[in-house]
Amino acid sequence: MLLSSTLADNSYEGATISDWDNGTTYAAGARVVVAYYPVYQRNATSSGGVNNQPPTNTTYWNLVSTYYWDGYSSGVTGITAAAYNSGTAYTTGQYVFHAASGGQVRYKVYESLQSGNTGHDPRSEGATPTWWVEVGRTNRWAMFDTSVRTKSLGNFTVSLKIGTADTIALVGIEGGTSISLHHKTSAGATIQNYGSFSLTDKPNFVKTGLTPTANSTVEIVFAGTSVGTVAAGTYAGLGTPAAGVRKSRKTYGRPSYDPDFGTFDYSEQFQVPTLDITTTIQEADINRIDTFLDSLAGDAAIWIGNTDLGYEYAVLFGVYDGYEIVTTAANQQARLGLKLVGVN
Cβ neighbours of residue 5 under 8 Å, at least 6 residues apart? Predict the structure, then answer.
């Protein structure tokens, strides 16, 4: 649970986003946020109309972003969005998010698709948006969603209540300089400093062996350009890594050729990282590991191919595409092969 952060929550890619107001007339492209922090954008073809709340009116709004998290307070630079106000008249290109009142919150940013956008709740937009379009998570919460491509921008300090989790991971780091971790009481007193670490040229960072308690917090102080994902959890050993880790990327770009002039064009799309890992496990651990992996089917996790310095590239946030366990005749050992696919 996120307890505090230095990052602003009403921001998305440099633009300000406000709460939706049912008395405001929004312009096409205006962005708003509605309760539990989804972000909506006003549809480009519809204007006017008051009290068309985004979550329920799909004619006026498009949902552009969301995230669920039980906690508050954070901040990174980006689009600045004000809480959505149903009485506000939003213009094209304005951004909003929905204010949270507690419990599960969804941090989505929406952009108004047209002017005269009043009373259209961004959450109500359907597959063909009219008033709002979802554009992403707010900058504070982007690093806590399930996509490495949605990034929180800028330096930040966040305080997380992670229960008894013993591992912190940062994935998709860009322009990283340094990170420090601190174990603190709920009142903010330092229990233990886990150290400061250089992030120069490191795409990922993992720290295992943390010793938080149920009511303590872990403070992360990050310096750098951006982070894609921050995750905390319990470390589960899956054997001793064999020499060598195979990492690759699948590109979903689309090449095309002009039949008349022979010119080449390439439509760049996102890339999906993959990781192949082989470990040696004890035969006595086969049932435990098999049951554990089966419980993770379809669920994203942080996979650590090697914890040694210089192997930060062998960290992946994703799911397993398959695994195999092969027993051997020697030393009561077995071989575990994992095929992992990144969640982008």
Answer: 73, 74, 75, 140, 156, 157, 158, 159
**Which residues in the chain are classed under CATH 2.40.30?**
240-342
pTM of the model: 0.68
Where, residue-wise, is CATH 2.60.290 in the chain? 154-233
Alpha carbon distance 335, 341 (integer Å): 20
d(CA 54, CA 74): 24
Q: Smallest Cα–Cα separation from 89: which of 143, 44, 31, 27?
A: 27
Give the pLDDT means over successive 10-residue stretches in the chain (344 positions). 65 61 69 48 49 51 37 40 86 78 55 92 80 82 85 90 88 96 87 93 92 84 95 89 81 77 76 89 93 90 78 87 87 90 86
Closest CA to 249 of 300, 203, 292: 203
**Burial of 72 (C-beta count, 10 Å sphere; 0-12/13-18/19+):** middle
Fold of the CATH domain 240-342: Elongation Factor Tu (Ef-tu); domain 3 (2.40.30)
Dihedral of the alpha carbons of 138, 143, 146, 150, in degrees to the nearest 10: 60
CB-count burial class (<10 Å; 0-12, 13-18, 19+) for 41: buried
The CATH number given to 154-233 is 2.60.290
CA separation for the pair 61, 44 (Å, rounded): 9
